[in-house]
Amino acid sequence: MTTTATPAKARVNPPKVKAQQPMLIGGKWVASVSGKSFSTVDPATGQTICEVAEGDKADIDLAVKAARLAMDGPWGRMNASGRGRLLNKLADAIEANKEELAALETLDNGKPIADSLNADLPLTLQCYRYYAGWADKNHGSTFPVDGSFFSYTRHEPVGVVGQIIPWNFPLLMQAWKWGPALACGNSLVLKPAEQTPLTALKVAELAQEVGFPDGVINVVPGFGPTAGAALASHMNVDKIAFTGETGTGKIVMTAAANSNLKRVSLELGGKSPNVVFADADIDAAIEGAYFGLFFNQGQCCVAGSRLFVEEKVYDEFVEKMTRKTKARRVGDPFHPDTEQGPQVSKEQQDRIRGFIEVGKKEGARLLIGGADVPSSLSAVHANGYFVEPTVFTDVRDEMTIAQEEIFGPVMSILKFKDVNEVIERGNRTFYGLAAAVWTKDLQKAIRVSHALKAGTVWVNCYDVFDAAAPFGGFKMSGIGRELGQYALQLYTEVKTVIMAV
Length: 501
Ligand code: ADP
What we know:
The structure is a single chain. The protein has 16 helices and 20 strands. The strands form five sheets. The chain has a seven-stranded mixed β-sheet with strand order 14-15-16-13-12-17-18, sandwiched between helices. Strands 9-8-7-10-11-19 form a six-stranded mixed β-sheet, sandwiched between helices. It has helices at about 55-70, 75, 80-95, 100-110, 115-135, 170-185, 200-210, 225-230, 245-260, 280-295, 310-325, 345-360, 400-405, 420-425, 440-450, 485-490; strands at about 20, 25, 30, 35-40, 50-55, 150-155, 160-165, 185-190, 215-220, 240-245, 265, 275, 305-310, 365-370, 390-395, 410-415, 435-440, 455-460, 480, 490-500. About 40% of the residues lie in helices and about 20% in strands. It has about 500 residues and is of the alpha/beta class.
């Protein structure tokens, strides 16, 4: 008998990147006012990719002026259907460049190329197309008032919106912010995360090419306490939308309150309970819990980082999860078979390692993983920011690793006995972003999903995202809902008109 070996999949080539990247203000690609730039780094190797113009207050001022001019110009007068057509054209342009964008995302962020291509890009495209459809459907209504009046509401754009996004899903977070903002007719100033500015700049270039008028879209890369703070506290910005840590969200909200009381929407951290009952399909729960924690190197605000497993199946679950995690392929993010790349930065790598040490010290049982870089890594990746997939068991609610957002590939498994207990423990956190429940008992599924205080609850699945599904946090996980029809509210002012007749 002869066998044919499956040919090994070829490594995807990293994209070529210009050594100097300017910023986009008022339709022009410009250097920063200060002349300063910063390096963006390939987290898989620790090498500098290129230099990016570093925006600060002066650049934010110029970008806000340009955005205001656009609102008062052709953009403000454009038909709603015209905005929809432009958003569809942007989606088409992104699709035509999807390989390059995926490779750029992998280079700057470190996420495996298979994830960039098969998760980030399709969701990004879906989001732009979804909001293209909304552009001419976000309308007010007439309503009866007592007396002789004709009364109606108009849905008007909020105006100039500032948007600050994180580094974990750069393309997708940009789409979540730009899709509804542009559909509703706002102009915008985006500050991408300092770790991952490259895809935002590339999408801005595509937006210019497809014909968004100058100044509608401005992208100012830079750091949080400088460029980000200038945007949040700007007197001529009408709304700030922020995604990032809860602590930073508080700073942004304070800045908004202390300046012009601009509208604020926040999508913040989480410590999501993922609850596995003994009557669940255990193999499906293993898959879901594994994906729900390790996806994107664990750098997800919705990561199922408190994995509650019912006592009766705890040992079986832990044994299977350990076996599965051991087989995780960590390494070169440009290899199509890689499941886990590096963390985004040295700072994040050190932070995660710190949590692992605290976990051990506080008495959690380290089953696999830990502080070491995976031994399978090649020399070129020796200085990359990798962390081994790690599983802790015997985790108790009061331990640091069960309370704080680790944002890394560190799983904490906790044991529980009954439904009431797990609901109470699941809710014992100031976060409320997401949760999941695994069971075949319909009543139990409904009861638990209604009792858990979280913006999204997944039942017998995890990390299912869709542009149509509203997303956001209860409690200190945020304010407002992105995605779906709800996101239109974030970018719309409702005007009431009452006319005597
Ligand atoms: P992380 O620690 O995961 O990077 P952050 O909340 O610090 O999360 O960052 C998310 C985004 O917020 C980034 O674009 C960052 O530059 C920005 N940011 C950080 N600090 C501030 C700040 N003081 N004001 C406004 N934006 C900030």
